[in-house]
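Notes, p. 3: input format for complexes.
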Amino acid sequence: MTLPKIAVLTGAGVSKGSGVPTFRDGADSLWRNYNPQDLATPEAFARNPRLVWEFYDWRRQMMANARPNPAHLTLAAMEKALPDFTLVTQNIDGLHREAGNRRILYLHGDIWYVRCTECDYRSEDRRVPLPELPPTCPRCAAWLRPDVVWFGEALDPVTLHRAEQAFSQADIALVVGTSAVVYPAAMLPHYTRERGGRIIEFNMARTPLSPYADETILGPSEETLPAWWEAFQAELGL
Ligand code: BV8
Ligand code: ZN
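Output follows (238 residues plus zinc ion):
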């Protein structure tokens, strides 16, 4: 039997099991203390780069102590086992790479990279905490910013196109730990459905995607995703 083409979209919920707070759910969600429009926007950064960097430096400190959980490890095992597997993430925490995935499409950037607001300087910077906020460019002394996509900013068109391709060719779309409210990421699973593929959602609660999903598996993805893959592998005879 030919193995199915699988595309995966992950959100903050897949890192919850690693102790990284999500954006919109539960008492410990990030946005309870901050309003996304106040911080993850170019306007906020222009108005108060230090405040925005305090927010990201704080998140980097939390993410630095986080390790991949069984959901991340399952996605790494799937990439190894399946010839046609694409992982698309909205997360910026770097845990998919640490878990062993190598072909990752980062829709919203990577918190471990900084880039200059003036020149084309870009570099990985894992210092926690950062020695000065905002950090300055070693080349031109302008402010550095986190290399992430803020609200109102365009996603990288090549990355987005490759993600759309993967979902429009997938037999199965797995949507793991996302509230499915942020666009254009939230659009991706619908491409799979339009070609007659199946959507399987893994979340703690129903989302705006649920009515379109063939299955919504409720529970923590650090438990439900490994269990699903175990059963699916047996079904595939892997
Ligand atoms: C763009 C990076 C155009 C920074 C982020 C009105 C209607 C529709 C759209 C819009 C609108 N007004 C504006 C827009 C566009 C806007 C948007 O979609 N807004 C939404 C909020 C309405 N989108 C944009 O601005 C995008 N850009 O459209 O540009 C353009 C085009 C050309 C030229 C110029 C401009 C850019 C969007 C990217 C923004 N950046 N992050 C940072 O991280 O700080 S978005 C942010 O939300 C994160 O990336 C996050 O990944 C993303 C989505 O959140 P989730 O990952 O889903 O996390 P969340 O907390 O929401 O949910 C967690 C889920 O996990 C929950 O469902 C929970 O139940 C579940 N869960 C919890 N624990 C577990 C679990 N599940 C399983 N297991 C568990 N253990
Ligand atoms: Zn510079």
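The pocket of BV8 (ligand 1) is lined by residues 11-13, 16-17, 22-25, 29, 40, 90-92, 108, 148-154, 177-179, 181-183, 202-205, 207, 220-222 (CB under 6 Å).
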